[in-house]
Amino acid sequence: MDISRIGLIAGIALSSTLLAPAALAQDVPYETLELQRGMITLDTHLDTPEAMDRPGWSIMDRHDVRGDGTQVDYPRMVQGALDGGWWVIYTSQDPEGEWDYKRVRDFAVMRGMTIRNMIAAHPEQFELALTADDAARIKGEGKRVSYMSIENSYPLGEDVSMLDLFYKMGVRMVGFAHFRNNQFADSSTDPEGPKYGGLSPLGFELLKRANRLGMIVDASHSSDEVLDDMLEHSTTPVILSHSGAKAIFDHPRNVDDARLKRLAAKGGVVQVNSYAGYLREVEPSPERNAAMRALREEMGAPAEMDEATYQSYLAKLRAIDAQYPLVDRPDGNDFFKHLFHILDLVGPDHVGIGMDWDGGGGVAGIEDITDLPVITQALLDRGYSRDDIAKIWGGNILRVMREVEAKADPKPAE
User: Fold this and answer.
1) This prediction's pTM
2) Strands 144-151 and 84-90, how do they pair?
3) What is the annotated signal peptide range for this record (predicted)?
4) Which of 11, 35, 242, 366 is packed most tightly, with the most Cβ within 10 A?
5) In the prediction, which pLDDT does 24 show?
6) Which tens digits make up the pLDDT trace of 176-232?
7) Does the domain made of 6-406 have the CATH classification 3.40.50.2300?
8) Sign of the dihedral through C-alpha 369, 189, 214, 164
9) Please, what is the Cα angle at 314 between 312 and 319, to 5 degrees?
């Protein structure tokens, strides 16, 4: 099992031939950057913990998206005025079974410790955030706001009380499924189709436990029917931590207008993502895809390499990029079509940003977090007020978090 996704998406970020020079952050007025610095700017889906486990990689060093494919680090957080967000514990899955549950559970725990260790090693720059009110305080102290989330609940096995362990670790958001169906929920993208027609019986137990603990419920990657079940049965608002509009691109990972409106009516928030394959139809490159698969089969997961092997891996990745460059890459306009459609549909009280940084997100012109002011400028140009933009960048998700906290009752379920 290849638990890391770095090999899947690094080649996308390494491409340097398709930057959009007319939409770079340095072209944004200084006043826009100052506006961004004055508000709490959070992203709900940061896959950077995978990079933290790479040999020789440090969150404190400035990296280059064209060099190693990464999009988030402390120097770039400062430059792009990203105050923080939700660092993701992501796991893939093998066929369901006790041995696999244990192995993936241990991986998930260690990935959580990677995040905690990063925070502990740099106490002047980062602080673990556990409540909505922590965000303003941590920002006020000049540090980066560090929430934690789970993407794919597969490592919990068949014991929903395992969620308590991750809550105690600091996790405050939980996504139920990922690319495949699991023991809790149907995925929106499982090639075998739905297994339960929504949440499984165990999934309903997990939803109840998340509500009681005070964890934000995330429906991204889950099927439409799972979202329906969550909206009907959750005692707190539901969010989509990194999703898009099916009305703009009819992809299973995107959500139709009727469900987006239902989510908003129940107080939820749609965090709009920038994963290329979910923004519009992209012309495939069979040769590039085959070369990437061969590289993964040859070298395995980057997190398991020593530094010399990892540098060799990067060199081969660049060679693939040079031989088979991306010829049909979505740009900022494709991202903004989703963002503005959803804003027009549900209003600025129910929209946020979850770009899927270091997990495949980023488009030409919005390459990494230093380009966040491009989004703010586009919102200003569209006529949104400072208060609206502050809600989109962090206010809305923090409002949901406060509602979740208010309804928490973390006593053990009977």
Assistant:
1) 0.90
2) parallel
3) 1-25
4) 242
5) 53
6) 999 999 999 999 999 999 999 999 999 999 999 999 999 999 999 999 999 999 999
7) no
8) negative
9) 95
Burial class (CB in 10 A: 0-12, 13-18, 19+), 306: exposed
Secondary structure, 3-state, the chain: CCCCCHHHHHHHHHCCCCCCHHHCHHHCCHHHHHHHHCCCCEEEEECCHHHHCCCCCCCCCCCCHHHHCCCCCHHHHHHHCCCEEEEEEECCCCCCCHHHHHHHHHHHHHHHHHHHHHHHHCCCCEEECCCCCHHHHHHHCCCEEEEEEEECCHHHCCCCCHHHHHHHHCEEEEECCCCCCCCCECECCCCCCCCCCCECHHHHHHHHHHHHHCCEEECCCECHHHHHHHHHHCCCCEEEEEECECCCCCCCCCECHHHHHHHHHCCCEEEECCCHHHHCCCCCCHHHHHHHHHHHHHHCCHHHCCHHHHHHHHHHHHHHHHHCCCCCCCEHHHHHHHHHHHHHHHCHHHEEECCCECCCCCEECECCHHHHHHHHHHHHHCCCCHHHHHHHHHHHHHHHHHHHHHCCCCCCCC
Helix axes 201-213, 162-169, angle to 10 degrees: 30
Mean pLDDT of the chain: 91
Phi-psi region of 408 (alpha: psi -120 to 50; beta: other; left: phi over 0): beta
- The two three-digit tokens of residue 4, written as one number: 């890391």
Cβ burial, residue 225 (10 Å; 0-12/13-18/19+): middle
Position with higher pLDDT, 109 vs 301: 109
- C-alpha separations of 125 from 8, 49, 209 in Å: 30, 16, 33
Tens-digit pLDDT profile for residues 295-338: 888 888 776 788 888 888 888 888 888 888 877 789 999 999 99
In Å, what is the CA distance from 191 to each residue of 181, 252, 275? 9, 11, 19
* Separation between Cα atoms, residue 210 and residue 189, nearest integer Å: 24
206 contacts 160 by C-beta, under 8 angstroms = yes
Looking at residue 11, its pLDDT comes to 42
**Closest-CA residue to 196 (of 229, 154, 153):** 229
Residue 255: the pLDDT is 98
**CB 149 within 8 Å of CB 174:** yes
Rg from Cα positions in the chain: 20
